[in-house]
Design a protein that fits this description.
241 residues, nine-stranded mixed sheet
Length: 241
């Protein structure tokens, strides 16, 4: 049995947007050709004025990528926590003010994009996302970060620019695989000295008062001289005296 893409989309709309959850998804699950279609590996619901997702979305356990940018969500929908195959979650440009309990269920998540929201804090559970490689928290209202963020050993790119951060956790130097770190547009008064241990870093951007540093290349590795960060940290110390 073959089902065309148009019909697939109609079915998805019924599942996602049926407020009373009356649609019989169990019957749909018997039609395996739908769920073997690559169309259901990725789901793009950007710019649809959404503020909720039907709980039956959790039945689509094979979805690996979801794009929810430019909607009206105030948190990550709990329905998504049951998608055990989810690797990429883009929920930028929404109205997110907090992250739900249970984000530790994202055991396979590699990319989490939350820029342009209203987050003021990040829960300690962030440290359980062992597979995360790309974390974008830019353009929020973050005042602090939990120490647990230093447990993200696989993290390669971290975007924290345009927040309200006044300091970073002291264990930031534990992010040994970090390649890109953007800290511009914050209220930083100091930086952890162990940043100089980030030997794989090839792009760093930060401003401190009237001192601004942007070195390396966001897209090209091996463009970073680690001695530069040590010199910059020295300048920060001297500037603060």
């Amino acid at each position: 049995m073959s089902i065309n893409t148009t019909y697939d989309k109609e079915i998805l709309q019924k599942i996602l947007f049926s407020i009373d959850n009356s649609f019989d998804i169990d019957q749909l699950l018997k039609q395996r050709t739908i769920f073997e279609d690559k169309f259901l590996k990725k789901l793009n619901l950007c710019n649809m004025n959404l503020d909720f997702l039907n709980k039956k979305l959790s039945k689509f356990s094979q979805i690996s990528s979801i794009y929810l940018g430019k909607n009206n969500f105030t948190t990550i929908p709990k329905t998504l926590l049951n998608l055990t195959s989810l690797e990429n979650l883009w929920i930028n440009n929404n109205k997110i003010r907090y992250l739900p309990k249970g984000i530790n269920k994202f055991t396979k998540l590699k990319i989490l994009v939350l820029n342009y929201n209203y987050l003021e804090s990040i829960p300690k559970e962030i440290g359980t996302l062992n597979e995360i490689e790309y974390l974008n928290l830019a353009s929020n209202k973050l005042y602090s970060l939990p120490e647990e963020i230093g447990k993200l050993k696989g993290l390669r790119k971290l975007w924290l620019n345009n927040n309200n951060l006044s300091k970073l956790p002291e264990n930031f130097g534990n992010l040994q695989n970090l390649r890109v770190l953007d800290l511009k547009g914050n209220n930083l008064s100091t930086l952890p000295q162990n940043l100089k241990h980030l030997r794989k870093l090839h792009y760093l951007a930060v401003n401190f008062g009237d001192l601004t540093l942007e070195m390396g290349n966001k897209f090209k590795e091996n463009s970073f001289d680690n001695q530069l960060i040590q010199k910059f940290l020295y300048q920060l110390d001297a500037h603060g005296k």
